[in-house]
Structures are given as C-alpha cells and as structure tokens.
Write a structure and sequence with these properties.
By secondary structure, the protein is of the alpha+beta class. Helices cover 30% and strands 28% of the residues. The chain is built from 5 helices and 12 strands. The N and C termini lie far apart (45 Å).
Length: 222
Amino acid sequence: MALSQIEIIKSLGRALEWLEKELTWGSPAAELRHLTGRIGELYVAMITLGQLADSVNQQGYDVISSEGEKISVKTVTSSNHVSFNKSTFHEVDRVIIIKINSEDMQLEILEDISKEFFGDKLKARDNKFIYSTVKKSTSRNTDLSNFKVINSVFYKGYKIVQLENLSIQIFRNDESISPVKPVLRELSKELNISEINSMGNLKNTRTLGDDVIKVIKEILKE
C-alpha cells in the first residue's frame, strides 16, 4: 500500500527516535543495519517525493521516485564502502548513498547520481560491485533549503528553526550559525533545560533544539 508523504515523514521521525533509543541503550550503530537502512529508504522516499519499493528486499532497488526512477539506497554510519549485487544492478536508474551522523541524528547525502555515471566508480569483486565512501562525507551536505519549516521561534536575536527532517538551524542577523550545538547549550542553560535525556545521556542536537523551541514558545505565550 502506497504511503502518503505525511506518513513517510512521520515514519522517518519514528524510526529516528527508535534509533536514538537503541544508541542510548548502548547498541552499536553498525549492528542496527536493518533500522538504519530503513531510515535511509524513508529519507530518500521523502526527498524524491517517491514511494518505497512494493516488496521487502525488492530486486536491485529500494525506492521509486515521483518521476519513476528506480533508486538503490545505501545507508552507512561508519562503514567506508557499500556494495551492489551485480546480477540486479541493471534494474537501477539512480544511486543515493546516505550517511547517518549518529551523534546528532543528522542525515547527509554522500552520493546522488544516475547509474550510468556512477558505474565508472565501481570496482568488481566476485558477484558484487564495491564503492568506497572514504573521503566522501564532506563532499556534499544535504540541501536543507528543500525542506519545509515546521517550527520556528525568535529569541534574543536568534531565529531557531526546525525542519521537516527534524534538523535544527539557527540564524542571527540572517546569517546561518554552524555548528548549532554550542548555541543550543548556551540557551538551554539560560532556560534551565537539562542537557541530559531520560537515559542519563547527553541530548543530541535534534532533541535539545526541539526542547529549546518548546520552552521558548511557552515563555512567549506568557
């Protein structure tokens, strides 16, 4: 059954929350491949306005974009390579490789390219094609301008924005601030917001930013 874009976004949010819980329980990100893989697929379905493939373990591809492209999605956390099955790679029109920053729960696009151009970067090994992701993580960041703003507040010269992929942005005098974590920590101390979550671990950027926005909204209501 096809999911609406709202359902895809909600599913992505729930999957990210579950990944965060698993990580706070001490599970290594590398051992959560099924969950991280699903997060990557949902993310690509969202940014391409597409749909997940009809069946589990669909041959060769994971997402069909709104333009009908069959997309193979690979998601990494710490691995320095991904592999593709030689026998099904012909089914693919486009390849997107996603990296999950497990500290801040941010998603980054390492590669987004049509198969015919991507193929030149592959190395054949046995029955697989191998692609190295080494030194690719800083080559391209997700274009956050494509995402809708779902929450924003102004506070003491800062504009704090939460996007539909749950990322947090902060602006001052229309200038984007990066990284945002130091500003959030400064504001959380001023607003008496704990930086520790219910599991006794430091909150990531997404969670801390969400808490800061909520508290500021309550203050502005007064």
